[in-house]
């Protein structure tokens, strides 16, 4: 089969360009070993899709995704789906996961004007139940450090508002901060592959250094099987078949997914992940 791989632009890989390129190349190589013909292109210059049986896609540029989504409508098979990437923004997923009972922190979505009012007159709410909260851009993945902010007081809240205003970000998610063990997880829906680790225990790479606010893990007991089951369900709901995310493990072993993303770099499990991704792509052919 003739396949096309779409590489992520560096502007969507803050501090992770080499890591994203490594998993992309590993998947392409694995597909070649399986006997497929594989061409590759960057989302910055990919324009032709004719003649390909399937596309494996790490792209995030909105204009590019619209072009690719048009090809999906015509029948081209794409993992991760361009249509899903366009529709499953952070704010959309926040509402969807709440509706579908995916365990997540208490959250709300705001416009910039609503955030300004919130910053000027913080009111008691569930989002302040732990004394702290997170503010994140809701229209896209984080592309710079100020797109995700940990807030402990009114001054930090006002600073976050000014940063979002400066970058004209009008789609915002605020979520309660949940104390507990931070766990990063990685998976490929429809396969047995699932990997997780404690980033603040291992001192592994951090894109923006925000994991420090969760502290050293206590090692609370939890069910990795249940986490995989929930994450795979989130993948089906979002359309992010190749996925990664963060969750917080509470002392009682329950968990809340605090972030869910398309196609991470899989740095600690690249070989196994590439094999699983290639296998999953093969299932669509």
Question: What does this entry look like structurally?
Answer:
This protein is of the alpha/beta class. 35% of the residues lie in helices and 23% in strands. It folds into 3 domains: 2-86, Rossmann fold (3-Layer(aba) Sandwich); 106-176, Dna Ligase, domain 1 (2-Layer Sandwich); 181-266, D-amino Acid Aminotransferase, Chain A, domain 1, CATH 3.30.470. The chain has 9 helices and 12 strands. Helix 1 packs across helix 9 and helix 5 (112-120) runs antiparallel to helix 6.
SSE sequence, one letter per element = EHEEHEHHEHEEHEEEHHEEH
Instruction: Count all strands and give the number.
Output: 12
Based on Cα principal axes, name the global outline.
globular
Helix content: 25-40%
CATH class of the largest domain: Alpha Beta
Quickly give the CATH architecture of the largest domain: 2-Layer Sandwich
What distance separates the N and C termini?
8 Å
Helical/strand content category:
alpha/beta
Indicate the CATH topology of the largest domain.
Answer: D-amino Acid Aminotransferase, Chain A, domain 1
Q: Mean pLDDT, nearest integer?
A: 90
Main β-sheet, spatial strand arrangement: 2-1-3-4
Total of DSSP H or I helical runs spanning 4+ residues: 9
Round the Cα radius of gyration to an integer and report it. Answer: 19 Å
Largest sheet: 4 strands, parallel
Bin the strand percentage. Answer: 15-25%
Low-confidence region ranges: 124-128
Number of domains: 3
